[in-house]
Design goal:
- This protein is an alpha/beta fold and 582 residues long.
- Helix content is 41%, strand content 13%.
- The chain is built from 24 helices and 15 strands.
- Helix 10 links the parallel strand 6 and strand 7.
- Helix 7 crosses helix 8, helix 8 packs parallel to helix 9 and helix 16 runs antiparallel to helix 17.
Length: 582
């Protein structure tokens, strides 16, 4: 069961099922839903599980097996055969057949293959078929004897958000269809959640999605991934402001009585796909557990040996998944938070102070981490200090833009967390050094690699996983800037000859780039997109590495789905759009 991080206002149940928290993520006092307690993983029982078996195991011990009865959905209508998906496709060698002791993986063996949760979850896992490896939606790269990248970007939008959004989106869509209920999904994105959400639910029945992102606050590829989506059930809005403002706008809508009244009168239920929705967090817990299994299977560690996990962090959902994995029994020494110049998380973990009262968001080369108000920190506070203290701290943040932990609270926080931060110049150096070794990493992953280099030597005694959160193709101009080691705009490079030029001979001359189709100079309005395309081609040629079709094909698409707004006009725009399209 799940409980509210700021306590209960008397208007909601004291405890809710996972189903209720997924469908209705808005909690009392503008809080969040989180785990009341942490069921313990028996590591010896999961050591040999394949990824899809691990997903089922974690959902079961978290109580997902009760989902059918509590959601009001007829589980008989969700048999895998309905969608043409066979459960054996995912669990051909089931836990029960491989390990006689694995009968304990489920509370009742007889219900395991027939209950609502199993069928729904296995259908949702079909979404992983679109990943590079349909049987394992992530991969690993060994950097050093004790250092590994966990590559979480093998899905359709080439970012780690696909790991959760693809199956989670499928679950939401199945629920909406089976309940004959229209859902409005609101999501605020700093760059990756939006594309992943739109990809997961575009053209689905009974689901309508409004995706908000900070105008000018994403990479060009990220923007194109959203604005080129041509689906009647999606609306993409560029909000004037930063991500914190977009996230605040989302939370305001979730608790707006007038807006909720409009939705009720039009038969809409309201939900969200940001990590404020606990359904997202579960899938993030799972891949952190898998990283331990991977190291164990490959002989990097022995059973019971602790590891470190480094997480490039913005909104803290990914790091929260690692924290919950640790609390559920995975042997994690420290969760190391890597931040950029917007280093509020670094300051919190080092000093116990969360103070954004005099801070202004800094635009960096790692834009998905350009966040000052990290919403998922609240769930950590709740787990460590309880609802009363969490409500007190979060109300102080809402009112005063700051809070401070006591000395004892900080010590407790630091039992689980360490933090490092990086500036843009250092990030570029790490990208260049990594590329020279044959591994191209994106700027967010680079903060994690740099973080490892900055750690005290005592951390080197542990095998370490760095979460690689995005493919380099989403940030090609930044990669090229790092490789050239010069502060050059892409528009100033001779793209035809650059791939064969020695970087020492690069010139910063003001060269016009011709449109390859017409031979004419590109128009100013297309310059940014074209520079991304040019950078992709240059890097691809230089390193003989292919560009994924989902990225390469973006530049032939039109931006059909884009509205630029101030926050004050958001509610009216959404209601008018729903009236016209729902």
């Amino acid at each position: 069961m799940l409980v509210e991080t700021r306590g209960n206002d008397g208007k909601k149940p004291l405890k809710v099922s996972l189903a209720e928290a997924i469908l209705n993520p808005s909690a009392s006092f503008n809080g969040l839903y989180s785990l009341e307690s942490f069921p313990q993983i028996e590591l010896e029982k999961i050591a040999d599980l394949e990824y899809f078996e691990l997903v089922e195991y974690v959902f079961n011990i978290l109580g997902f097996s009760e989902f059918g009865a509590e959601s009001g959905v007829d589980s008989k209508n969700l048999d895998s055969a309905e969608s043409g998906v066979k459960s054996k496709d995912f669990v051909a060698d089931s836990a029960d057949s491989k390990n006689p002791d694995s009968a304990n993986l489920d509370s009742t063996d007889s219900a395991h293959s027939n209950n609502f949760a199993t069928n729904l979850l296995r259908d949702a896992l079909e979404s992983y078929r679109s990943f590079d490896n349909p049987n394992l939606p992530l991969s690993y790269t060994k950097l050093e004897p004790n250092l590994y990248l966990q590559n979480l970007f093998t899905g359709p939008t080439r970012a780690f958000k696909d790991m959760a959004m693809q199956p989670f989106g499928a679950i939401l869509c199945a629920l909406a269809k089976q309940k004959s209920q229209k859902y409005l999904i609101l999501t605020a994105t700093s760059g990756d959640t939006g594309p992943a959400t739109l990809e997961a639910i575009k053209d689905k029945e009974n689901i309508f999605c409004v995706c908000m992102y900070p105008n000018g606050g994403t990479s060009d590829v990220q923007r194109l991934q959203m604005t080129s989506v041509n689906a009647k059930n999606t609306k993409v809005i560029a909000l004037n402001g930063d991500f914190d403002m977009a996230q605040s706008a989302l939370k305001d809508l979730l608790s707006d009585a007038e807006f909720r009244g409009f939705l009720d009168s039009h038969n809409f239920a309201l939900s969200a796909t940001n990590s404020v929705n606990f359904g997202r967090i579960i899938f993030q817990i799972i891949y952190h557990i898998h990283s331990y299994i991977y190291l164990l299977k490959n002989g990097a560690i022995k059973a019971g040996e602790a590891i470190n996990i480094i997480v490039p962090s913005g909104n803290f959902g990914n790091a929260l998944g690692a924290f919950f994995a640790k609390k559920m029994g995975v042997k994690i020494n420290k969760i190391i938070i890597a931040t950029n110049a917007n280093c509020v998380l670094y300051e919190l973990i080092k000093s116990g102070k969360y103070d954004i009262s005099n801070k202004k968001l800094i635009k960096t080369l790692s834009p998905a981490m350009d966040i000052l108000k990290s919403s998922n920190v609240e769930r950590v506070l709740f787990s460590l200090f309880g609802a009363v203290r969490t409500k007190e701290l979060m109300e102080s943040l809402d009112k005063n833009k700051s809070y401070a932990l006591s000395e004892g609270e900080l010590a407790k926080l630091r039992e689980d967390f360490e933090a490092v931060f990086s500036d843009d110049e250092s990030v570029l150096e790490v990208i260049r050094d990594s590329a020279n070794k044959g591994i191209i990493i994106d700027p967010h992953t680079a903060t994690g690699v740099l973080g490892y280099k900055k750690l005290d030597s005592k951390f080197r005694d542990f095998s370490t996983i760095i979460c690689s959160t995005a493919e380099w193709t989403k940030f090609a101009p930044t990669i090229l800037k790092a490789l050239n080691n010069e502060n050059l705009a892409i528009e100033n490079l001779d793209c035809e000859n650059l791939a064969t030029e020695n970087k020492a001979n690069l010139k910063s001359e003001n060269l016009a780039i011709e449109n390859p189709k017409t031979g004419n100079p590109k128009s100013a309005e297309n310059t940014a997109d074209s520079s991304d395309q040019e950078a992709l081609d240059i890097i691809s040629k230089r390193f003989s590495t292919p560009i994924h079709a989902n990225i390469k094909n973006l530049f032939a698409k039109k931006e059909l789905n884009k509205t630029i707004l101030d926050k004050e006009n958001l509610k009216a725009t959404i209601t008018n759009w729903l009236k016209e399209n729902a």
